[in-house]
């Protein structure tokens, strides 16, 4: 059974940093491109970014609103992908989901981690 | 405001067939395959369909998808109460170089 479990969410002040983790199982993580998608309150899903597999160079790509502030990392030894979020803004408040595969097709998703940016 | 446009709500009665639309542009739906997801509060989104009805195992064939030009549709036949959920479309956008999503359509089974 494929499982993705996010953790690390919480309440953070504007300008602060937070790191989300997504621990996975049930599929070959080393071959997987991994994505982060978020959903702000009352809005639709929004792509955050993705990281390719190590064999594909582990290169990353980010959506314009988070580029330069967010970083996606992976640790294949732990089957885990991370989302490092710096310089957080109030508009970053959202539930953050990790998913396997890149592009518009995400086969499996986690249940999400809530990040609230507020003073 | 989402890049892809969906109606905020739809409804149907058990056994009925309903369709949910998703409108985009030439840079996304017009040139790339569309994915559909089912969303329920507090749960992991569920992947339903990609492209020309490429469904993962476990998704019944009551769910089907189509595309014409810069618009796409999800059809659910033989509607069941368990289908009551939010549905979201997605497609790769060649201009933005990333996937874009619709705002979601909440389906009510009356």
pLDDT below 50 for ≥5 consecutive residues: which ranges of chain A?
Answer: none
Anisotropy-based shape of chain B: globular
Helix and strand pattern of chain B: EEEEEEEEE
Distance between the termini of chain A: 40 Å
Regions with little confidence, pLDDT below 50 for 5+ residues of chain B: none
Count the beta strands of chain B: 9
Instruction: Label the structural class of chain B.
Output: mainly beta
Estimated helix fraction of chain A = under 10%
The amount of helix of chain B comes to under 10%
Termini gap of chain B: 28 Å
The total count of helices of chain A amounts to 0
Helix-strand makeup class of chain A: mainly beta
Please tally the helical runs of chain B, counting DSSP H or I stretches of 4 or more residues. 0
Instruction: Report the biggest beta sheet of chain B as strand number plus sense, adding barrel if it closes.
Output: 6 strands, mixed
Most extensive interface, residues per chain? A-B, 23 and 29 residues
The whole-number mean of residue pLDDT values of chain A reads: 97
Mean pLDDT of chain B, to the nearest integer, reads 95
Q: From the alpha-carbon coordinates, what is the Rg of chain B to the nearest angstrom?
A: 13 Å
Strand content of chain B: over 45%
Radius of gyration of chain A: 13 Å
**What sequence of helices (H) and strands (E) makes up the elements of chain A?**
EEEEEEEEEEE
How would you summarize what this structure contains?
Chain A is mostly beta strands.
